[in-house]
Amino acid sequence: MKQILIKTSIVCVVVLLFPFILTLFLSSAPKAKDSIETMNFKIKYNKDGKLENINFDTYLMGVVAANMPAGYHMEALKAQAVIARTYALYNIALLTEDGHSDRNFTTAELGLAYMNISDMERYWGTDDYKNYFAKIENAVHATENKILVYDGDLILPVFFETGSGYTRNASEAWNVDIPYLTSVSSKQDVTSTNYLKISE
User: Fold this and answer.
1) Secondary structure letter of residue 37 according to DSSP
2) What is the residue extent of each domain of the chain?
3) Which residues are within 8 A (CB) of 13 and not within 5 positions of it... i.e. 6 or more apart?
4) What is the pLDDT of residues 141-183, one digit of tens each?
């Protein structure tokens, strides 16, 4: 009886641990050669008519700051950081395919709203700047190398502030079928201050 109990316990442990070990193996962190940092591109910001190099994380912080209030929940900021990273890399790939062979991109070319560090301080004010900057920096670093893919390819992660209770199919918006951009319920839109707001 004791041997049966021991064997049963061993089988249970193996059965329970196998999926965990398999998951760890399959979802291991990307190797250095596959990481975003080793990709060969530069981002430049036009500051007073002069192009300055900025690193990718600094760029992402500026994108998150420009597209989402820093007071939002950390998980929302992390999601925005992943979207920003994916969107930037998607556009870099697109621009490269279109002949942008030098792989130097300006913040304007990448197509996302961007706020530089001095603008952040002016926008948030001195009292909130350090806290908000640290929060956004943490969101970017906590999601390092995380991107959104569909069938192994970067997605086009379009987003919006407020909808009408439902998202739209890509075919409705752009007359192009994109399998991952399909209409879904977005009922939390009604809580937005801009819900059903008419702008001219």
Assistant:
1) G
2) 36-149, 160-195
3) none
4) 999 999 999 998 898 888 776 667 778 788 887 888 888 888 8
